[in-house]
Amino acid sequence: MIFLWAFLVGGGICAIGQIMFDVLKLTPAHTLSILVVVGAILDGFGLYEPLIDFAGAGVTVPITSFGNSLVHGAMDEARQHGLIGVITGMFEVTSSGISAAIVFGVIGAIFFRPKG
């Protein structure tokens, strides 16, 4: 049953993003930013973790999870280290994903050439 909920909830998030493109005529940057902020707001109110427990990968794979990670890391570190933890917590939690994206992007650029 978890697979069904992951599919439906993750698909719903993606459908919302597509509607933002098609109906609202938002640019990819605006859509991306809005979805990240929505994920951050949901985590700030404590609603994203129950959603992860309910839908699993359906909410951890879309870009809303990045906003969740930023706020979650900042709040955890703020509890432990105070105000400085807000700044360092965001980078501590998301650094591995961002680093992997940079490394794989460079590797892809080395091995593949654009056609044109």
Automatic annotation (TrEMBL):
Pfam families (UniProt xref): SpoVAC_SpoVAEB
Coiled coil, from the record: none
InterPro entries: Spore_V_AE, SpoVA
The keyword Zinc appears for this protein: no
Keyword annotations of the record: Membrane, Transmembrane, Transmembrane helix
Record-annotated membrane-spanning stretches: 6-24, 31-48, 54-71, 83-112
Keyword Membrane: yes
Protein name as catalogued: Stage V sporulation protein AE
Species name: Scopulibacillus darangshiensis
